[in-house]
Design brief:
- Chains A, B, C, D: Its cofactor is FAD.
- Chains A, B, C, D: InterPro entries: Acyl-CoA_DH_CS, Acyl-CoA_Oxase/DH_mid-dom, Acyl-CoA_Oxase/DH_mid-dom_sf, AcylCo_DH-like_C, AcylCo_DH/oxidase_C, AcylCoA_DH/ox_N, AcylCoA_DH/ox_N_sf, AcylCoA_DH/oxidase_NM_dom_sf.
- Four copies of one chain form a homotetramer.
- The first copy, chain A, is α+β, with helices and mostly antiparallel strands and 384 residues long.
- Chain A has three domains: 105 residues, Acyl-CoA dehydrogenase/oxidase, N-terminal domain (Butyryl-Coa Dehydrogenase, subunit A, domain 1), CATH 1.10.540.10; 99 residues, Butyryl-CoA Dehydrogenase, subunit A, domain 2, CATH 2.40.110.10; 159 residues, Butyryl-CoA Dehydrogenase, subunit A, domain 3.
- In chain A, 51% of the residues lie in helices and 16% in strands.
- The first copy, chain A, is built from 13 helices and nine strands.
- The first copy, chain A, has a four-stranded antiparallel β-sheet, with no helix packed on it. A three-stranded mixed β-sheet of chain A has the order 1-4-5, with helices on one face.
- The longest helix of chain A has 37 residues.
- Chain A is globular and about 80 Å long.
- The N and C termini of chain A lie far apart (50 Å).
- Chains in contact: A-B, A-C, A-D, B-C, B-D, C-D.
- At the B-D interface, helix 9 of B face helix 9 of D.
C-alpha cells in the first residue's frame, strides 16, 4: 500500500528503510547526530512545516499528523523530536516580527538542520506557567536572562530556543535566545523512560544577554498556548502511531501463536481486544485531526495573534492530548498483557511502546491540569 | 447563544419551547401522536433529510447530527424516533428505482407525516442477519411475506416499512411493505427502559402479499449496512446530546450545592469530573462527525450502491456507535453518582438520561458484535 | 444445595418461596406491610441481630452477611430494609444505658415487628454531619427537637428512630425518639430509583419533646460512625447478592441463547465476562467479610465505645462499601449489555438489578466522601 | 511502628536495612549471589516455609503473605524469588513420599541455601499444560527426560527442579530433577522487564537420566495446580507490597510538591486518588489473605492430595492473582502519572514499580486464561 501523497509516501519509505528494525538501538539513548535524522535532513524533509512563503514545504498541521503517525509507528522519540522542531517555529510565525521571521524561521527552509527549541517549563512551577521564576531584566537595548529551564526538547541540537521569562511581576514574555549566546548552557541530558532516541535537556541561563529585538510580541502564556495548540495534535498523533504499532505487533502474534489448536487470531477474546483497539485508534485519529484542522484554520485566519489573545489555546488541542494519552495508554497496557511471558522479556518491543506512549499523558501538562483547564474554560451549558 | 444556521436554530428554539421541562411526561411512554412531533410536522421540519432533488430540505447526515444532538439534549426518544425516519429513506435513496423513489421517498418532502420504518431484526437471529427467518416467496408478480420482526422503530406510525426477507437460502432481499398492506400487523409496543417517548414495535407479516415491483435492488445485508451507515452516526449523536444534558445538569448542581462552605463547582474533584466529561463529549462529537462525513461523501460519489457492495458498511459508523455508546454510558454513570441521594429519586432527571443513553450500546448491534466486526473487516497492518 | 447453617437455610428457603418470581411486584413500590416481611416476622427471624443476652438470635454481623446476600439476591430493597433495622440497634447496643437497652433493644427479641430507624442525613448538610441543622434544646428534664431529616430508611414502619441533633455549636448528640412522640411526622415517602420495595421517608421534627433520659451516650458523629461500621458491610453484601443474581441471569441466558450456531455459553467473550464477574464477586465478598469480622471483634472487645471514640468508624467498612459499590456497578453495567435488545425491555430483570445496586455507591456517603475520608484518616506510610 | 510478630519484624528490619535505597542496583539485573539474599540466609530466615515437622520455621501461607508484602515493598524480584522457593516445596509436601521429603524438603530447614525450582511452562504450550512436549521415557529403573522449559524461576540457583513431563499421551507426571544431574542445563537467563533482581532461566533437559524414585505422586496438572494454589496468594501479595510502595512514594511527593501555593496533599484530586488506592490495597490484601487461608486449611486437612485431585486448584488463589494483577496495575499506572515529568525520568522509582507489578498479571497464567478457568470451573448459580 502506498500513500497517494508523494511527500507522505517519502516518509513511509523512510520509516520502512531507516527506522523499522532499529528500535532497540533507538531505545538505547544513542548519541546524536542520529543517522535517521541525518537521512531526513539529507532528503530535505526534516523541516516540513516551514511556510511556503519562506520557501518551505508549507505543510499544515493536519498534514503533519500523517507524517507524525508514520514516524511514531517507527519510533516515537524520533517523531516527537522532529515534530517538536515546529514548536518554536509556530511561535515565531504568530508572534514574530519580520526580522525575527527572516532570521529564525526562514533559514529552516534552506538549512534542514536549522530549528529552534522551546524552554518554558521549570521544576518548581511545573504546569503553573504563571509561577515562572526565570527573569529577564532590561538593560538599555538588551535583556539579561537568568533561570533554569527543566525540560527543553531538542535544545541541545537546536540553533536557538524560545525562552519564557518574567519581565515584571505578572508579566511574562518570550525571547529568542541563540544557543551560542553567552550564558546559555545545556546542563544535563535527561534519561527518560520513553522517547530515548531524542534529547531532553535542562537549559541554564546565567546572566545571558540578548538584544531587546529578540523579544517576541504578545503575552508569554498566550504565546505558549498558541504554540502548544499546534504541537498537541502532533503529540496526540504520536500516540496514534504507537497504538497502530501495538495493533500490528498483536496481529502478527495472533496469526502465528496457537491456542487450543487454532491460531490465536480466531479466538473471540483476541478478536474483541483487537476490535476495541481499532475503534480507539480511529477515535484518537479523529480527535487529533479535528484539533489540527482548528489550528490550521486559525493560522490561515486574519489575525491568529488576536484569536489566541482572546481565546487562549484551542479546546480541541487539549482534548486531543488528553484522550490520546488515555486511549494510547489503554492500548499499550492491553499490549503488555497480550503476549504472556514473552512480552515480559526485554527483547520484546511492547514495553518500549508502553514507555513511549506514556509521554502523551505526562509531558507538557498532565491529565489533571488539562481536566481542570477544560472545566475552567470550556464547560459551557447549551441553554443559558 | 443562537446557531448561525437558521434551520438548526429552529430546532434549538423548538427544543427550548416544546421539549425542555416535559421530560417526565416524555419518559412516561405517552400515547401518540405526540404534541412535539405534531409541532415539528407543523413547522415542516420533521423530514429534514429528504434530498433537495425531491423537493426536500436536503440536509446531509453531517448536518443532521447538529439537529439530533439538540433533540437528544431534550429527549432522546424523540431524537431517535424522528431521526430514525431517515433509515428507510437512505435505503430507498441508494437501492430504489425511480418509481420507488417517487412513491416512497418524494412524498416525505411534501407530507411531513410520511415516512418509512426498517424491519430487519428478529429474535432468534439477533445480530446475525444471515439467520433471518422471514421468507419472501415469489408468486407470479407478487411476493408473499411471512415472519415476525422483533423490533421496528416507529413502524406503528410509519406509512411503510422496509422488510428484510429470505428469497432463497443465503439470498436476502429488502422489500417496501406498506403498513396498510394485508397481513401486516403491529403486534406489540415494547416497553423499553429508555427512549420511552417513541414507539418500538414488533411487526408480524402473515401471508402478506406485495407487488414484486416493491423489491429493492441489491443484497439485503448490504442494504441494511448502507442504511445503518447513515443512521449510526445519528445514534452516536444521540449519545452526544444526552451527554451534554448530563454535563449541564451537573454544572447547574455544582453552582448551587455547597460543600465545605463553598459551591461544589470550586471543588477540584468536581472540576476534574466535568473536565473529563467535556473531553469525552468533544471526542464523541468528533467520531460521529467523521462517520457522517464519510457517509455523505459516499452518497455524493458516483456509485454508492457499488461502494457498499464492495466495502460493506463504513468503519467510521461502527466506531462512532461503539465509542459513543461507551463514553455516553461512562458520562451518565458518573452522573448517577454526582447528586448523591438526590439523584436516586425518581423525580431527578439523571436516571432517565442513563436509561436513554444505553440504547446506543445495545440496540442495532451490541458492542461485542461491533468489536468482532472491526477485527474481521477493518484490522489491517500498515506495513505488509 | 442447602446451607449447613440451619438459620441461613431458612432464609434460603424463604427467598426461594416468597421472593423469587415476585421481583416485578417488589419493584413497583408496593404498599406496606409487605407480605414477605410479614412472613419473616411470622417465622421470627426478622430481627436476627438481637444479642443473645437480650433473648435474641444473636447473629454477628459476619453471619448477617450470608442472610443479606440471599435476601438481596431475591430483592435488594427487602434486604436493605430488613438489615437496616440493625442500625439503630447497633447504636443502642454500644451507646445505650441499661434502661435504653431494656426498652429499645430487648423488645426486638420478642416482638419481631419492633425496631428502630436512624435519622441523621439532612438535605443541606449532605455527607457533612457536622453541618447538621436539627437542634435539641434542653428544657428541664426534656429535650425539644426541631429539624427535617432528609432520608430515613424504614422510619415509617419503625417504633422509634435515633435522631442526630445539635445541642450546642459543635456538639452533636443522638436521641431515641419514639415515632409516636408528639411532633414527629413522616413527611414523605421517597420514590427512589432502586430499592423500591422498601420505604425511604423524610422525617420532620416539629417542637418534638422527649425525656432527657432518651439521649444516648457519646458524641453523635462517633455514634453514627460506629453504627454505620456495622451497617456498611451489610450494604456491601447487598451488592454481592445483586451481583450474584446478575451472574445467574447471565448464566441462564448463556445456556439457551444461540450465537453462531452454538450456545452463547461456549463463546470465549461470554466466558471471559462471566469469569471476570466471578472474580469480582469473590472479591466483594472478601472485603465485606473482612469488614464484618472487624466490627464483630470490636463489639466483642472490652470497650467498643472507647474504640470508636479513639478511632472513628472502621476503615474496612468504608472500603467494603466503596469497592462493592464500584464492582457491583461494573457487574450490573455489563449485565445491561449482555442481553442485547431483550435486556432493554422493562419486563427484563436486569435494569431492576442495576437500579438496586446503585444505592451502594450513593446512599449514606458517596464515593467521593469515602475516598477523601480514606486519604485523611487511613493513608499511612509503612516506614516512617 | 514495629510488627508484633518477631519474625515478621525481622523481615521489616531486613527490608529497611538491606533493601530500601538499593532499588536501582536491584533493578540492574545484578549478578548472584545477591548480598541481601546472602544476608537472609545468614539470618536463617530465607526458607521460612519449611514445615515444623522437618525442623523448619513452619510458617503458613497466610503468614508468608506478611513477609512477601514487606519484601515486595522493598523489591519485588527479591520477594518473588525468595517466596518462589516454596513452590517446589509445596509440591513435595503434598505429592512426595517419605524419602522424597527427607531428601528434598527437610534439607531446606538446616541449609538456608537449599531449595527447588518448578519447571513446567514451555514456549509452544504456553498456559495449556496439557500440550506439554517434554517427555519422560521409562528405561528400567530410570526415566529419561527430554525437553525445553521456557521459564523457570530461580532454577539457576536451585539445588533441584520439579519438572512436568509426559510419560504417555495424556499422562503428565512431575519429577524431581537435581540441577547437577547429567543433561540438565540452564540455557539462558532471561532479561525481564521487571523482577530484574531475580533469575528467570530457560532450562534444557537433554537425555537427562534420573532414578524412577524421583517421580512424584499424582497427575502432573493437579500437582502444578496445588503448588500454584500456594504460590498465587504470594504473587498477589507481591502486588500488595508494590502497591503500598507506590502509595508511600505518592504520599511523600504530596507532602512536598507545591500546587497553587499549597502542598499537593491538600488538593482534592490528589486525596481522591490516594483514597482510591488505599481502598484497592485493602481489597487486594483481603483477597490474597482469603486465598492463603483456604490453602492452609486444605493442607492442614486430612488429605490435601485427594482434595486437589477432586477440586483442582483453589478458586480463591486464581481470583487473588487476577484481581491483584488488575488493581496493582491500576495503582502503578496512576503512579506513573502522579509525578508529571519527574516520574518520566529513569532515576525515579515509579517505572520500576510499574514494571515489577506487571508480572502478577502475566506470568504463570495470564488474565484471559484465568477468566476462562473461572467460567469453566467456578461459575455456579445459587438456586438450581
Amino acid at each position: 500500500m502506498t500513500d497517494p501523497n508523494p511527500l507522505i509516501e517519502k516518509f513511509r519509505v523512510f520509516v520502512r528503510e531507516h527506522v523499522l528494525g532499529r528500535e532497540a538501538w533507538l531505545d538505547s539513548s544513542p548519541e546524536h547526530p542520529l543517522a535517521p535524522i541525518v537521512e531526513l535532513e539529507r532528503q530535505g524533509i526534516s523541516n516540513w512545516w516551514v511556510p511556503a512563503m519562506y520557501g518551505g514545504l508549507g505543510l499544515s498541521v493536519r498534514e503533519s499528523l500523517d507524517i507524525v503517525e508514520l514516524l511514531a509507528y517507527g519510533d516515537a522519540g524520533l517523531a516527537n523530536g522532529i515534530a517538536g522542531r515546529s514548536l518554536a517555529a509556530a511561535a515565531i510565525r504568530i508572534y514574530g516580527d519580520d526580522a525575527q521571521k527572516r532570521n529564525y524561521l526562514a533559514p529552516s527552509a534552506t538549512d534542514p538542520t536549522f530549528f529552534g527549541a522551546l524552554s518554558a517549563t521549570e521544576e518548581a512551577a511545573g504546569s503553573e506557567l504563571l509561577r515562572t521564576a526565570t527573569v529577564a531584566r532590561k538593560l538599555g537595548n538588551e535583556y539579561l536572562l537568568d533561570g533554569l529551564k527543566f525540560v527543553s526538547t531538542g535544545a541541545a541540537l537546536a540553533k536557538f530556543t524560545v525562552v519564557l521569562a518574567k519581565v515584571a511581576e505578572g508579566d511574562l514574555r518570550a525571547f529568542i535566545v541563540p544557543m551560542d549566546a553567552k550564558g546559555v548552557k545545556v546542563v544535563k541530558r535527561w534519561r527518560t523512560e520513553g522517547l530515548r532516541s531524542y534529547v531532553y535537556s535542562q537549559v541554564a541561563l546565567e546572566r545571558c544577554r540578548i538584544p531587546a529585538s529578540l523579544m517576541l510580541r504578545g503575552q508569554g502564556v498566550r504565546l505558549v498556548e498558541a504554540a502548544t495548540s499546534a504541537m498537541r495534535p502532533q503529540i496526540a498523533a504520536t500516540a496514534v502511531g504507537i497504538g497502530m504499532r501495538v495493533r500490528d505487533v498483536c496481529l502478527e502474534y495472533g496469526a502465528k501463536k496457537m491456542l487450543g489448536g487454532r491460531p490465536l487470531a480466531q479466538n473471540d477474546v483476541f478478536a474483541a481486544k483487537l476490535g476495541q483497539m481499532e475503534a480507539e485508534l480511529t477515535t484518537m485519529r479523529a480527535v487529533a485531526r479535528e484539533a489540527a484542522v482548528e489550528f490550521d484554520e486559525i493560522v490561515r485566519g486574519s489575525d491568529p495573534e488576536e484569536h489566541f489573545r482572546r481565546h487562549g489555546g484551542t479546546k480541541s488541542a487539549v482534548v486531543a492530548k488528553l484522550i490520546c494519552g488515555q486511549l494510547g495508554w489503554k492500548i499499550a497496557s492491553a499490549g503488555t498483557e497480550m503476549f504472556g511471558g514473552l512480552g515480559y522479556m526485554q527483547e520484546h518491543i511492547i514495553w518500549k511502546l508502553l514507555r513511549d506512549v506514556r509521554h502523551v499523558a505526562i509531558l507538557e501538562a498532565g491529565e489533571d491540569v488539562i481536566r481542570a483547564l477544560l472545566h475552567a474554560r470550556h464547560c459551557v451549558p447549551i441553554f443559558e
